[in-house]
Amino acid sequence: MPAATSPETPLLRRALPAHGTIDPSTPDGRSTLLDWYTLGTPAHLRLTLISTLDGRAAGPDGTSETLTSRVDRTVLGVIRELSDAVLVGAETLRREPALVPRARPLVVLTASGQLEGLRPPGTAPRPTVLVVSTPDGAARAAAEHPWVETVAFQGHGDRLPLPAVLDALRARGLHRITAEGGPALAGALVAQGLVDELCLTIAPRIGGSALPLLGQLEGGQEGGLSAPLSAAQLRQLLVDDHGALYGRWTLTARRPTP
């Protein structure tokens, strides 16, 4: 007998590579999602983003909260479950402190060490929070938030050496990394050829805050206009009953030579 569906959750259908329909709010549906999103590679970086139809990464309130949905949050939870760590930029943490994962280590990139959105773990056990910053920024973060771990890199202004950061994370056993933005971090990861898979939710809406999906890349252009074209192969496409699309693209841009 098929599992009962929740009337509050739209069904989710896989259009590519093979057809299938699930209720993501049920245990069976979540199990199927885990299977659909499993990657065979032991080490990878996934970039998860949400945008409107016209490429905006935030709704009217300036955050992604007004774009997301219950299904989108379920998909994000599945991707996190398949990860060793969640990577975010400090600006995203300041805008949306509720994005902090409950079951995976959080890695925060910040050149300044300012972590206004970061809250103490409270009495319940919480995963590690690792702050990656410049030497001055790491010292500031450790002084203001003594319960976090810090790693220091010599940056170039407000830019941290992302390839070295990822190498350091994997040396700690964090091989499967999910990057959740914001747009500035997403744009830098894409521009430097560090993203293995893009998981993009496209909300069936137009308008919102003028926040380009990939922020402002090197060269001063917004929305990725200054980045070289990179090939992307669609490997999966889901659609829910409300018209949201959930795509997975493998990015094939060549890594820069050290």
Question: How would you describe this structure to a colleague?
Answer:
The protein is of the alpha/beta class and 258 residues long. It has one domain: Dihydrofolate Reductase, subunit A (3-Layer(aba) Sandwich). It is built from 6 helices and 11 strands. The longest helix is centred in the first third of the chain and has 12 residues. The radius of gyration is 18 Å and the shape is globular. It starts with 11 loop residues before the first strand and ends in a 7-residue tail after the last strand.
List the helices and strands and how they pair.
Blueprint: E1 12-16, E2 20-22, H1 27-37, E3 44-51, H2 70-81, E4 85-89, H3 90-95, E5 106-109, E6 129-133, H4 135-144, E7 149-152, H5 162-171, E8 176-179, H6 183-191, E9 197-202, E10 232-240, E11 245-251
Parallel strand pairs: 3-8, 3-9, 4-5, 4-8, 5-6, 6-7
Antiparallel strand pairs: 1-2, 1-10, 9-11, 10-11
Helix pairs in contact: 1-2
Query: Order of strands side by side in the largest beta sheet?
Result: 2-1-10-11-9-3-8-4-5-6-7
CATH topology: Dihydrofolate Reductase, subunit A
Radius of gyration: 18 Å
Derived from helix and strand composition plus strand pairing, the structural class reads alpha/beta
By DSSP, the count of extended strands is 11
Please trace the helix and strand order, writing H or E for each element.
EEHEHEHEEHEHEHEEE
Q: Helical stretch count?
A: 6
